[in-house]
Amino acid sequence: MLKDQHFAANLGSVLRKLKPTRQVECVELMLTANNMTVAYAEALLAATPPHLLVSEKRPRKLSGVTAEQMVKMEREMGNLQGQLKLVEKSYGQDVLLLELSNRMLAFLRERGQATRSQISVECFRGKVLLDASLEHLLASTPPKITVRWDERAGSAPGAPLRVYRLVAG
To answer: pTM (2 decimals)?
Structure first.
């Protein structure tokens, strides 16, 4: 993980005090935060529970930090790691949703309005599920698009057509 990274030479000595699983967690946190400093590594070390330390013994205390503050830091670090994992899980899906939504907005800007079928076939060549993008655009504040329900031509069977249009603005 650190192959292409620049970091201080003594960063390794801090990380070696951690068990391998905790080393990986800390390096991932440091890479995500784009903070490869020894000070950040020492803060992560200080917030590491004893069972994840190589010596199973607490590292030297940070000056000016009480035991109560240390417990709070450990708890907060655990919460942040959990939140980070959730963000990492949804990030790719969120980026895809935004990309699809942007393509749909550009298509509607060009066409003025389009049915769901037209968006699917002409904008995405029928290869993308649209529901999440449409819901995202309709639910955004303020909404980016509107939907109008039209009857099918010539009393054709089926549900009414949904016609999507950019919100004027």
So the answer is: 0.46
Give the largest Cα separation in the chain, rounded.
81
Dihedral angle over CA of 37, 43, 47, 53, nearest 10:
60
Q: Among all chains, which residue has been given the structure tokens 């192959």?
A: 3
Question: Per residue in 29-80, pLDDT tens?
Answer: 888 777 888 888 888 888 788 888 888 665 555 667 777 887 787 788 778 8
Cross-strand pairs, 150: 161
16: CB partners within 8 A, 6+ apart = 23, 54
